[in-house]
Specification:
The strands form three sheets. Strands 6, 7, 8, 9, 10, 11 and 12 form a seven-stranded mixed sheet that branches. Helix 5 links the parallel strand 4 and strand 5. This protein is α/β, with parallel strands linked by helices and 553 residues long. The protein is built from 17 helices and 17 strands. Its EC number is 2.7.13.3. This is histidine kinase. Pfam families: HATPase_c, HisKA, Response_reg.
């Protein structure tokens, strides 16, 4: 418990004998009444004491040389902190009414006449000391009340924060649950189609046309599954800051034009009116990621715009930015949803029977990729049924003309022999069959050590090596092949499900010439093999980090 200071009494008198008499008299009751006595010989000294202490009452002599009692009282009460200290004037003369009036005007609480009667002094002092102690107790209680109020406000603030955090956590958990449900739905749809098509191919009475259609379904749905996996991986990398951009000067207009041509060729924009205005604008960016940004925006417009609707694509250039705008006449965005359209797992409709489908991560990925390029993205809509507008700003750069690397087509007269090292039996069998169909002589192995043995006997021109092998992994296979003078000539292509920039560097450091990310489509694989065996290997290997992205498209 904090120590409580005793109330203080100030006695002011210029006469030493009178001062001693008064202080001695008061000292008799000091312990009983629990107060402390302080003496002063002049008005000036009294003012100094008032500056240092708070007093319960001041006994002030009226007749003092220099600064008399009235002047001292006036000075004491001019100071805000001491304005309410009660003052008892002590005088040897009987004061008339005018003197009393003057004293009260100067702040007097009472009068005492000398010689002072002890019992009267004791009674009056006791009253003021008791008042001072009561006031101090009230102040202490007020401080405690203020502290309690502050503590309650703080506790209430913490409680409200905890409630809000719990609500946010519940919303996030709900969003994750919905996302997992949507993910299961999105994966089962193509898997079901693939399973049905594969079963159809196994039927003895299947017609040629049905077989062709079944094969196209398997190919199309496999690509769809690959896109789902790539979106999930890209979002994870983007959120954790693990996406590294392979920057180069890019003409955004040419990039958008090429993307739109792909959509037209595949018939995806056939049911829409697409208006395009493109002004040439260059940025320092990653071609693959910029294509991903525009494709996601265009997919979003197609997804939420009914057939027959219009989509406008506008590219403008100002002093600092290249500005890409995609506007559609689709379902629009609610005002409540608009601020959250770039959040992870957010969709306009979260039910599993929604017509649009998708995982709700496309726009979140767009925002992160744009931010990695140093740009910004905005969304706008007038409301449901009023369409949507998405605007991308990317820092502009000057046009730089660079020679393009040409990848040679496959030489039909001089195809290299191929060694395939892959531990997945189905994947190994299918890739070997595809390579054989394209005229390649293929040997294969199921693990790293077996692959090394086959390589020593077979001496292939190209080795396709899976990284995740049992026994020794693909990195060690590459290191051992490069360490053997008889097998250093083999061109090495890594096949892996890992596509981060650090994975690409690790592959190249191990001795591989190229890094391809699964699933690998056959056309891209043919180009990769041709590029490594056509005299352009050095240039292509230098461009290898861009290859995985192309294979994911």
């Amino acid at each position: 418990m904090a120590k409580v200071d005793k109330p203080k009494i100030l006695v002011v008198n210029d006469d030493a004998n009178s001062l001693f008499a008064l202080t001695s008299l008061l000292a008799q009751w000091a312990d009983q009444e629990s107060y402390e006595v302080i003496a002063a010989r002049s008005g000036e000294e009294a003012l100094r004491q008032v500056l240092m202490h708070d007093f319960a009452v001041i006994l002030l002599d009226v007749n003092m040389p220099g600064m008399d009692g009235f002047e001292t009282a006036e000075a004491i009460h001019q100071r805000a902190r001491s304005a309410n200290i009660p003052i008892i004037f002590i005088t040897a003369f009987v004061a008339d009414e005018l003197d009393r009036l003057k004293a009260y005007q100067k702040g007097a609480a009472d009068f005492l006449f000398t010689p002072v009667i002890p019992q009267i002094l004791h009674a009056k002092i006791s009253v003021f000391v008791a008042l001072a102690m009561k006031n101090e107790e009230l102040k202490r209680q007020a401080r405690q009340l203020n502290q309690r109020t502050t503590d309650l406000i703080s506790s209430n603030r913490r409680l409200l924060q905890e409630i809000e955090e719990r609500k946010v956590a519940e919303r996030q958990n709900h969003a994750k649950d919905e996302f997992l449900a949507m993910l299961g739905h999105e994966l089962r749809n193509p898997l079901s189609a693939i399973s049905s098509a594969a079963s159809l191919l196994g039927l003895p009475a299947v017609t040629g046309d049905a077989a062709v259609r079944a094969k196209k379904i398997i190919q199309r749905q496999s690509q769809h599954l690959g896109r789902i996996v790539d979106d999930l991986l890209d979002l994870s990398r983007a959120m954790s800051g693990k996406i590294l951009l392979n920057r180069a000067p890019v003409d955004v207009a040419a990039l958008v034009r090429n993307c739109l041509e792909t959509y037209r060729t595949t018939g995806r924009t056939a049911d829409y009116e697409v208006h395009v205005e493109l002004e040439s604008g260059w940025v320092d960016g990653d071609v693959t990621r910029l294509e991903q940004i525009f494709s996601n925006l265009l997919d979003n417009a197609l997804k939420y715009t009914p057939p027959g609707g219009a989509i406008d694509v506008l590219l403008e250039v100002d002093e600092e930015d290249v500005v890409l705008t995609v506007h559609d006449t689709g379902v629009g965005i609610n005002a409540e949803l608009l601020p959250h359209v770039f959040d992870v797992f957010v969709q306009g409709t979260s039910t599993l029977d929604r017509a649009q489908g998708g995982l709700g991560i496309g726009l979140a990925l767009v925002r992160r990729l744009v931010e990695l390029h140093g740009g910004g993205v905005e969304a706008d809509s007038a409301g449901p049924g009023e369409g949507s507008t998405f605007l991308i700003r990317l820092p502009r750069t000057e046009r730089i003309t660079e020679p393009t690397l040409q990848i040679m087509e496959t030489n039909e007269q001089a195809k290299p022999t191929v060694l395939l090292i892959e531990d997945n039996d189905d994947g190994r069998e299918m890739m070997a069959m595809m390579l054989s169909c394209y005229g390649y002589e293929v040997r294969h192995a199921a693990d790293g050590l077996q692959g090394l043995d086959v390589a020593r006997d077979y001496r292939p021109g190209v080795a396709l090596v899976d990284i995740g092998l049992p026994g020794i992994d693909g990195y060690e296979v590459a290191r051992r092949l490069r360490a053997d003078p008889d097998m250093r000539h083999i061109r090495l292509i890594a096949l892996t499900g890992y596509g981060l920039a650090e994975d690409q560097r690790r592959v190249l450091d191990a001795g591989f010439d190229m890094h391809l990310v699964k699933p690998v489509d056959i056309d891209s694989l043919m180009k990769a093999i041709a590029s490594l065996t056509s005299g352009e290997a050095a240039a292509t290997a230098q461009a290898a980090p861009a290859a995985p992205a192309a294979l994911r498209s």
